[in-house]
Amino acid sequence: MYVTCNEHLDLAIDDFVDVYEQPPDLYELEKVSFTDWMTPKTCDFCDHVPRYLIV
User: Distance between CA 15 and CA 31 in Å, rounded?
Assistant: First the structure.
């Protein structure tokens, strides 16, 4: 699972495919919410605000 900014979206998708050998599901963080999970404040690859959840 990755949370990423716009800039690192392609990198996160590539990493996901390399690890799991299948395409990920992609969600915009503004449009989803989970009761037991808080959105991280930064991208997994930098200090920008994340926009996407990749699972």
Answer: 23
- At 36, which amino acid appears? D
pLDDT of residue 1: 92
DSSP character string of 1-55: -EEE-STTHHHHHHHHHHHHSSPPPEEEGGG---TT-PPPSS-SSSSSPP-EEE-
Distance from C-alpha of 24 to C-alpha of 41, rounded to nearest angstrom: 21
Cα–Cα distance measured from residue 55 to residue 45, given in angstroms and rounded to the nearest whole number:
16
**Considering the entire predicted model, what is its pTM?**
0.88
Structure tokens at 46: 């930098």
Q: What are the boundaries of each domain within the chain?
A: 2-54
3-state secondary structure of 14: helix
